[in-house]
Amino acid sequence: MGKFANAFMSLFLDEKARKSAAQRSAVRAKEQKMTTRDREMQALREKVSDVMTPERQELIQHAMKVRTAKAKILDDLSDEHKQKLYALAIKSLLREGKDEGGPEGNNGGNNG
Fold it and tell me: How confident is the model over 62-91, as pLDDT tens digits?
């Protein structure tokens, strides 16, 4: 607030009323600074709370915590171990496709 507004408030308002007015002013300023993205996120959160049951919200939060914990484990691996794990996963996926009788698996038992 400007100097004039502060002087005016000090003449007519007690300390509690001045603090309350300052708080309202701060809230208004914060709302004005809120970006479009912030408003959209707030609207989305309100919609989610209307649509999603508390049980489902809890399940999703738990799943996100588990995912974060697993990602942390992977982040702690060295680059060499990450490469080995990646190669193992690819081999496993390719092998899985053959076991299910996919196009790679229908070669009469010849693997090479």
Answer: 999 999 999 998 889 999 999 999 999 999
- Say whether 70 sits in a helix, a strand or coil: helix
Contact present, 99 and 105 (Cβ < 8 Å)? yes
Helix residue spans in 1-112 (DSSP H): 3-12, 15-33, 36-51, 54-75, 79-99
For residues 22 and 1, the answer to whether their CB atoms sit within 8 Å is yes
Domain spans, the chain = 3-74
pTM beyond 0.90, yes or no = no
